[in-house]
Amino acid sequence: MSELRELALTSKAWPFEEARKLAKRFAKGPPEKGYVLFETGYGPSGLPHIGTFGEVARTTMVRRAFEVISDIPTRLICFSDDLDGMRKVPGNVPDTEAMMAHLQLPLTSVPDPFGTHDSFGDHNNAMLRRFLDTFGFEYEFISATEFYRSGQFDEVLLRAVEKYDEIMAVMLKSLREERRQTYSIFLPIHPETGRVLYVPMKEVNARDGTITFDDGDGREWTLPVTGGNVKLQWKPDFGARWAALGVDFEMYGKDHSTNTPIYDSICRILGAPAPAHFTYELFLDENGQKISKTSGNGVSIDDWLKYASAESLSYFMYLKPKTAKRMFFDVIPKAVDEYHQQLRAYATQDTKARLNNPVFHIHGAEVPVSNMVVPFAMLLNLASVSGAEDKDQLWGFIRRYAPDAAPESHPDLDNAAGFAVRYFNDFVKPTRACRAPNDVEREALEALRDGLVAWEGPAEDEALQSLVYTVGRERFDPMRGWFTALYEVLLGASQGPRFGGFIALYGVEETVALIERALAGELV
């Protein structure tokens, strides 16, 4: 056994813990189909949101961990439930009024309000795939519309007709009395209107593989359950999909957790073992509300990528998946800097430590080297005090601080400089407010200014930090008050960087001028 596999078998990193649970299912040998199937589901009722990416990213982390500890081949399927009827119009799409005419049509039959694809479902699927492809995920995409209409689901659907009473018994236990009267696991697709119907069944014929029902006008119809004429309600669909595909692992949000016994039971009734599960906590917006793709609250995939790299997003997804996390713009800078801290740590770690490092689970064995010689938070502060409108202005300071750095040799830093300018102008600048110093703070700022005016040595982080400490130590106890004053008076922020490093980056003379402006009240 290789050292990597041996250490992975005891690693406390959560992807390895989940992978080991999954591997126990195949202790006697690989599954009959010859591979382990990971699945992630997607409901394309609105624009893809960041939680969707998180589900694929985290599933990929478990898949990668499984491949370290097992030789059984793996596949990952991203399944889109795009045959679902559009029950309400999302609030974040164009011309919502016109879309009202298409309620209850399958999402792949609703016209695309963006005018770029054959349907709204196709548009949202394309958005999801575009991002997953850009990031480099290895996956196979399956559309529910194609899965139902091509006959790939027919065998399981016919089995569902045969086991109708058993599946209904599972479902009825979970429903309120009034819903039980009209509920059916089958949703017919009206032969004339194309709409998904929520109607009771008059007959379910196991011999013919058909269902009989009345539509809203009281007309009776009999349809085969095969060939895309019906779809399953979403809870039965979960379990039936597992059975049809032979899914071995699926993760989903906490809001699904109470339904897990239902999914599992239906999968087993249909003749397949239930897969292993992993339930993660939900993403919340800045108000503590669940992020929803239909309401469009919180941070979208495109939002994050406007201000930071995809790798920093993966890092955020890795952290404590069992803990609910607020997902809004303020988390981005911290995620960027912590991701690069982990990259730098990885370069010096032994194999055991590397397996517990988030970047291993983001990149696998091919972990890149960080060239972020200036933290993202520092770039934000630099953009703030310099009033930078583009990244070239920041590079003027960066080159003086790190003469060997250049956009060509430090692409991560170059991208981060552009992200920092954009983030500052969109989020920091509109609310930034510097305050006037009090008497003690004014005296300390004057002392720091005088020390910088007399500075004769090279502008090195640690030496300048020592000067900052000396000035503060003589006047503040605790020292936190001194640093808070520096951030609030000079940067208009509640927190900030190591100030010696900031001076080295921004420049000694430039910092003297900044302090002079603060003392003169020009920053308030």
Task: Give the gist of this structure.
Helix 7 crosses helix 10. It contains 24 helices and twelve strands.
First-to-last CA distance: 65 Å
Q: What is the general shape?
A: elongated
Predict the CATH topology of the largest domain.
Rossmann fold
Q: Largest sheet at a glance?
A: 5 strands, parallel
β-strand percent reads 5-15%
SSE topology sketch:
Elements: H1 3-8, H2 14-24, E1 36-42, H3 50-69, E2 74-80, H4 96-99, H5 120-135, E3 140-143, H6 144-149, H7 154-162, H8 164-172, H9 177-180, E4 186-188, E5 203-205, E6 210-214, E7 220-224, E8 230-232, H10 234-245, E9 249-253, H11 260-269, E10 276-280, E11 283-284, H12 301-307, H13 310-318, E12 325-326, H14 331-346, H15 351-355, H16 358-363, H17 376-386, H18 391-401, H19 411-428, H20 439-453, H21 461-473, H22 480-491, H23 499-506, H24 508-519
Helix pairs in contact: 2-3, 3-13, 7-10, 8-11, 10-11, 13-14, 17-19, 17-23, 18-19, 20-21, 20-24, 21-23
Description:
Helix 2 (14-24) crosses helix 3 (50-69). The protein folds into three domains: 3-283, 3-Layer(aba) Sandwich (Rossmann fold), CATH 3.40.50; 376-431; 439-519, Arc Repressor Mutant, subunit A (Orthogonal Bundle). The protein is an alpha/beta fold and 524 residues long. The longest helix has 20 residues, at 50-69. 48% of the residues lie in helices and 10% in strands. The protein contains 24 helices and twelve strands. The strands form four sheets. It has a five-stranded parallel beta sheet. A three-stranded antiparallel beta sheet has the order 5-6-7, with no helix packed on it. Strands 4-8 form a two-stranded antiparallel ribbon.
